[in-house]
Amino acid sequence: MKKAVFALGALAIGLVTADAAAKWVRGGDASVTFLATGPGGLQIKGSGSDLTVDDKGDTVTVVVPLKDIDTGIALRNKHMRDKYLEVAKYPTVELTVSRAEIRLGASGEGAGDANGTMKLHGQSKPVRFHYSVKRSGAASNVAGSLRVNMKDFGIEEPSFMGATVKPEVDVNVTFGMKDG
User: Fold this and answer.
1) H helix or E strand, kind and range, residue 16
2) CA distance 43 to 31
3) β-bridge mates for residue 52, sequence order
4) Which of 2, 93, 119, 166 lies at a CB distance of 3.0 to 4.6 Å from 84, suitable for a disulfide?
5) pLDDT in tens, the chain (180 residues)
6) How far apart are CA 9 and CA 1, in angstroms?
7) Residue 129's closest CA among 153, 112, 141?
8) DSSP string, 79-114
9) What pLDDT does residue 138 have?
């Protein structure tokens, strides 16, 4: 579960692809989802809608607070936040991307794979993610996805009553961006 949350943060950052000349801010709805899998078809899905975007000109950082990521089961949420993600100590996941990594056409649209740095559980690691940006007037719809290995960030594989999820978690993030 925790890896899924980490991955969500990474995806959100990967989705921030903007015209280098304009400062961008989040505008519109956002969605962060993760999927962790385990034996016998076990699937743990989580979601949230809170994220911020910090555009510094040459880099863009997407920050996802972990306290509100929800798996639909209160006890599982508590274990994910307290035991695995240690949200009191590490409240967010951040993805920082150089604008030079994002390739957009003259229309401000594009898609591809890019590199960034994800900070999760107090550790910063390079990550590779897929992104797409579609323009609609002065706004853009951004989407990103990546697979995160919890072990890479010092997070123990979640296990409860003998059921353990795999360390790889798929994360997807979507959000709107607009000129700031």
Assistant:
1) none
2) 19
3) 63
4) 2
5) 544 444 443 343 334 333 444 666 787 889 999 999 988 888 999 999 999 999 898 999 999 999 999 999 999 999 999 999 999 999 999 999 998 998 888 888 999 999 999 999 999 999 999 999 999 888 899 999 999 999 999 999 888 877 889 999 999 999 998 876
6) 13
7) 112
8) HIIIIIS-TTT--EEEEEEEGGG----TTS-EEEEE
9) 81
Question: Structural domains in the chain?
Answer: 2-179 (2.40.128.110)
* Strand partners for 63: 52, 94
Q: What's this model's pTM, rounded to 2 decimal places?
A: 0.83
CA dihedral 140, 56, 30, 80 (to 10 degrees): 150
Nearest to 84 by CA among 148, 173, 40: 148
Cα separation, 179 vs 24, in Å, equals 5
Q: Enter the tokens of residue 135.
A: 């323009």
At 63, which helix (H) or strand (E)? strand 59-65
Tokens of 14: 């990967």
CB-based contact 53:28 (threshold 8 Å): no
Pairing of strands 159-160, 163-164: antiparallel
The token duo for 127 is: 């990550």
